[in-house]
Amino acid sequence: MSGAPPRAAPRPAWLLALGVTAMVAWSLGPALWQALTAIKPDAQITRVPTVYLPQPPTLEHVRRLFERLPFEAYLANSAWVATWAMLLCVAIAALAAAALARMPGPGRLRLLLVLLFISLFPPILLLFPLYEGVRALGWINHPIALILPYAALNLPLAVWVLESAFRQLPREIDEAARVDGLAPIARLWRIHLPLAMPSVVTAAILVFIFCWNEFMLALTFMTRHDAKTVTAGIASVGSASLFEIPWGQLSAAIVVATLPLVFLVLLFERRIASGLTRGALKG
Amino acid sequence: MSRGPLIAKDLVKVFPDGTRALDGVSVSAAPGKVLTLLGPSGCGKSTLLRIIAGLEHATSGSIELDGRRLDDRAPGERDVGFVFQNYALYPHLSVAANLGLALEVRGVGREERERRVRETAERLGIGELLARRPAQLSGGQQQRVALGRALARRPRLYLLDEPLSNLDALLREDMRAELKALFAGVDASVVYVTHDQSEAMSLSDRVAVMRHGRVLQCASPLELYARPATLFVGTFVGGPRMTVWHGVRDSDSLAVGGVRVPVPAGLPGGPRLAVGIRPEDVIVSDGPLRDGLEVVRRLAEPLGARTLLTLEAGGQIARAMAEPREWPERLWMAWPQNRLHWFDAETEARLEPGGGG
Amino acid sequence: MTPRVWTRERMLSLLPAALLLALVVVLPIARVVALSVMRTEMDEGFRLEFAGLDPFVRLWQDGRWWTSLRNTAVFTASSVAAEMVLGIAFALLLHGSFRGRGLARAIVMLPWALPTAVMALAWSWIFNDSFGVANDLLRRLGLASEPIAWLGQGGTAMFAMVAADVWKTTPFVTLIVLAGLQAIPHEVMEAARVDGLNARQRLTRITLPLLVPSLIVALAFRMVQAYGAFDLVYVMTGGGPGGATETVSLYAYQNYFRYLDFGYGSAIATQGVLIAILLVLIVLRFTRGAGTRG
User: Average pLDDT of chain C?
Assistant: First the structure.
């Protein structure tokens, strides 16, 4: 009767607890520190020795943040670009994945490997030609300049995730749909996608996260202040002059910029984990 | 070297979610003998086996092997060989390494180890496969390696968890015979788990029939067959299944639907009884039988050497093994009194005429 | 009946993806390779002139290129080595079941989900010489009497960058190793227990060998990713102090957008990537042997 793994022999419990605590503290630490700094009054930020807990906490920085920088614009831009790129990417990936999933012969694996190979190129290689193209098309500071490249750069990951999900759907369902007379697009939309929805959501989340976090293209293509995404906006302000940075506000900016992602991760942890490993483990 | 028996006493296992997998089980296996734990899924047989191996802990109870308590020992220190249902071979090691790992870990020298590995492999007919990896072996070969892994250690106790269930039917038959021969040559105790009653019957010296975490009867195969202690044991052991009729006592017979079955004198038990007869004990005839019943043939399943007939009378169904020929639709069936098995309908316990229970 | 592979349906389905990738990846790569053999002339405006292998000769003689290559190598090697060890440790911890494991896993994954560029700022704050937590902790633990100017010196700046990168990408390795761990049938581990292997032996003789394929995947991915790291370097150190942390990506970027030397920047980028591919191939060849041995 083998099914659920039985409980393992009890390891020294304290060792496990210590390890897990250290691991969690390490992972959470820097982000937590940022959050604390964001709500600390200025005087305490620059106190030496370091004050760890703000007394009392203040929302001053967050308030001033929105006054000083067009922060809402940054957030809106990031959301806009990431959402559209995600939709485009998943749509195109779904089409490709549907074709690959039922492809007989070695072609399928070869194409997937080509995809993998493409995804490994360091983006710096693509930056300048893309910049030339974007400029030539007059797309500087236009969201489309980011949406298209983001959709393309995330295709390999999305295709890997979706292809494996589609492949696991029983072939008979495809065949029944064909016998019932559904066209390929209809089959994709009404059979594959709904049945593979968990993987679609996973792929969408992963793509969204990558798009939100992207920096290099955003920095290069968005030069106007109000066109910047959140990553480019904060980072370029921050690295302006390291001497007169209002760390309180900057910390607030960092926290606000990363908060949506924190929520995403906490909510969809399991999905993200399985999507990532599937995308990478196939190699 | 004579070894002591395995004695498990009053084992109780309650899982964290409240499931009572074992409810006070006691079994023993003598060295050189095979004890089989037989029962349907969920009866607790695998749990019991794993507790004996040390892979799980009992909530209460004790286990002793060769006079020594096993309870506090890690699985590796119990001197037990375990054969897993899915073989659980080390995928990254060769067959030879699989067979020898336990020996290596115990510090057995390389020469001795290689000798034992070779011996064991030859005995199991896999001597040619020593350099291969599990992935390169067929199911049957993998199963032998799993067996060999236990054999090479010459442990005091062998535990086998449904080792044949993943093999196809033909292979299973062959392996069964081989296992029986193998066990005959071994002086350790063997505990075998299966849900296949014919496997249990053919391999064991004693069988413990389990259900819902309890041992219903622990006896030799023949005893189980001839004198099942409970209704469940009677229907589980022996195939095709025993026909069972439930009825109400009425003076000296049992009223079962439209049929009356004479109840032997002095049969204890309550007003409601169950009576069972094995298909192979039923007598069938074209013409009338004394003390027999006229029946209608509902189904005939030719099994080769015999034909299994499904018969009906008075709304009751019975099955009989008969000669392999055409049978008319109206027949006569009779059952020898001494072949009937009587059970109390409430307790399901076996009833003996003349007071025994 | 052998089904046809390239049906019209399939080709149409694959077309959008193929087009997009051709546009955003394939063409730019071709362009960059073309640019790398060009020289930028600045008389009235920019002119690109074919220069053959001259840019690569210039590269060979460019001290700053060699420095950037060395920095990249140091960064990649340190970062990946640390992540592999930490990733395996974390995965082992997360593999056993304990209360709150789901939450722990989510927290462990957090660093990976946060934007590198933004967290780079956070890290430079942590390593701030006057007010940073790093110095404060060192002082409190009695390990350093004077505040360290982390980002002001070459060696420590590199250390800070590696720390930030390890923090960010360990979850990636953790997840891959975790998946590898979960693929090991639990009965194999039980067989090992029955065979008498203790915890340490089970780890070294069963678990780790069976993890090798996952480790190779993680290694290959991380090497390429670390090599191409841009966000972290640009934001945290800007390549400083004095070029001590300038990586290949950053050097290429500077040539593109500060010196406007497009041809040379392209040469740097292409050369850098070629070296990366070579390294990965070497590592893969080397480790493939380890994976199938014994």
Answer: 87
Superfamily of domain B6-229 in the CATH hierarchy: P-loop containing nucleotide triphosphate hydrolases (3.40.50.300)
Q: What is the pLDDT of residues C44-92, one digit of tens each?
A: 556 677 777 888 888 889 999 999 999 999 999 999 999 999 999 999 9
Domain range list for chain B: 6-229, 243-351
Say if the Cβ atoms of A273 and C220 lie within 8 Å. no
C residues 71-100 closer than 8 Å to B (CB): none
Could you give the domains of chain A?
Answer: 18-58 (no CATH), 70-236+252-281 (1.10.3720.10)
SS (H, E, C) chain C: CCCCCCCHHHHHHHHHHHHHHHHHHHHHHHHHHHHHCEEEEEECEEEEEECCCHHHHHHHCCHHHHHHHHHHHHHHHHHHHHHHHHHHHHHHHHHCCCCCHHHHHHHHHHHHHCCHHHHHHHHHHHCCCCCCHHHHHHHHCCCCCCCCCHHHCHHHHHHHHHHHHHHHHHHHHHHHHHHHHHCCCHHHHHHHHHCCCCHHHHHHHHHHHHHHHHHHHHHHHHHHHHHCCCHHHHHHCCCCCCCCCCCHHHHHHHHHHCCCCHHHHHHHHHHHHHHHHHHHHHHHHHHHHHHHCC
* Selected residue of C8, C13, C40 to mutate for chain A interface (largest A Cβ count, 10 A): C13
Q: Does domain C56-292 have CATH number 1.10.3720.10?
A: yes
**Which residues in chain A touch residue B46, judged by CB atoms under 8 angstroms apart?**
1
Across the interface, which of A234, A269, A270 has its CB nearest the CB of C118? A234
pLDDT band at A1 (very low <50, low <70, confident <90, very high): very low
- For residue A124, give the nearest of C31, C220, C269 by CB distance: C269
**ipTM score of complex:** 0.86
Which architecture characterizes domain B243-351 according to CATH?
Beta Barrel (2.40)
